[in-house]
Amino acid sequence: MFGKRSNGQVVAIALIESGSAGIALLKTGQQPELLAHAREELALEVRSKEAQLSGVLQALATAGEKVLAEYTKVGKKAISTCYVVVGSPWSRSFSGSAGTKLDRATAITDAMISELAKQALETQKDIDRANFMEASVSRILLNGYPASDPAAKRAQEIDVFTLISDCDKGIKTGATEALAKLFPGTSILWRSSARADLVAATQIDPSGSYLIVEMDGEATDLISVHKGVLDQRVLVEQGVRQIMDTLAKGKPAAETITLMDMLEKDECDDAACTELRDSIAKAEPELVHVFGEALAKVTAGRKLPDELILIVPPSLAPWLSRFFARIDFTQFTATTRSLTAGSFTVRQLSGVPKNEPSLFTDADLCIACNLVNTELSS
Asked: How far, in Å, CA of 16 to CA of 87, rounded?
């Protein structure tokens, strides 16, 4: 509602995650066009937090160089803005809310909404304001009903929900420097991956309740959404590398991922695959404990919906779907039913460019593109 329609401009979208970084150049609009994209992933190996941060920033710089080299072959239009979408563990997000009941039905103004949003943001005490990244209105209710464009509508009750995020200082400083070299003179705007995930999920089901599980190389985000509003966001310091190490101790993570993919396709029946099956059966209780503790934190204020949105590497999606469905996590759900992965795909998102099918294999970058194009086209 506070956006400014900016169709047709070329923007850079940088995505920074726990063990990878990517950049896309996008021509925005009702039919967005992907002009170039690249993703760089760190090797799945143990490293210190400092080395992880340094590696991700180098991955960002490398992806940017590749994107610019590709764009110079096809594009001449200047890049207007660079959006940076930051995931876990580098960003944290919190929700806030404020409401009022008027004496009678009144025409709603932007000033009224802004004042309530300000109140909601001021009540959030957990945010690191020294490393503030973004604040936005995620949902507005008029007389209890969602309103995407409330201005001039009449209502007696107004409820405003907000999303506020902070960012790791080292990531923000390093990314600012890297992007200034890649796109000199271009303004930089910061967004959280939680905001991108929320926009994507609410496009599919605006009033839905679900648990989002987003996994990268070194971390997993658990995001609980209640009726279209972020309820809780919890970091699990277990990503693809740690989980693969748990499932097949002592073996390279990349090798284990390949074997798991072969198992899913029923293309593997040698001794190594038999050993992996046995290892998975033995290791799953440890993972249940890890994710059970995290789910307990997510449900501190409200029990979970049973619908699950998985944003994970494609080779792990089938196993993770079964893992969450068959393990007894029912103590955390409001329905006491098992967590069940829905049919969410990035192809459903209205803001994802459809001209380059190879982008669909990178769900996180698709979701980042969808966020930016949705903002600029609304």
From this structure: 6
Tell me the pLDDT tens digit for each residue of 182-237.
Answer: 999 999 999 999 999 999 998 988 778 899 999 999 999 999 998 888 899 999 99
The three state secondary structure string of 26-64 is EECCCCCEEEEEEEEECCCCCCCHHHHHHHHHHHHHHHH
Residue 165 structure tokens: 């995020």
Assigned CATH for 92-164 = 3.30.1490.110
pTM: 0.91
> Which among 60, 150, 154 is positioned nearest to 113, based on CA atoms?
150
> Which tokens belong to 91?
């960003």
Query: How far is the CA of 207 from the CAs of 40, 140, 239, 307, in angstroms?
Result: 35, 11, 29, 13
Distant-in-sequence, close-in-space partners of 8: CB < 8 Å, separation ≥ 6: 27, 28, 29
CB atoms within 10 A of CB 342: 15
Cross-strand pairs, 37: 24
What is d(CA 66, CA 71) in angstroms, rounded to the nearest whole number? 9
Q: Which CATH number fits domain 10-90+169-200+346-377: 3.40.190.10, 3.30.1330.80, 3.30.420.40, 3.30.1780.10?
A: 3.30.420.40
User: Side chain identity at 312, as an amino acid letter?
Assistant: V
Taking the CA atoms of the chain, what radius of gyration do you get in angstroms? 21
Strands (E) across the chain are located at 10-16, 20-27, 33-41, 79-86, 91-107, 132-142, 145-146, 154-167, 187-192, 210-215, 220-226, 229-236, 307-311, 340-341
* The two three-digit tokens of residue 23, written as one number: 């950049």
Q: Tens digits of per-residue pLDDT, 244-275?
A: 888 887 888 888 888 888 888 888 778 888 88
How far apart CA 34 and CA 349 sit, in angstroms, is 14
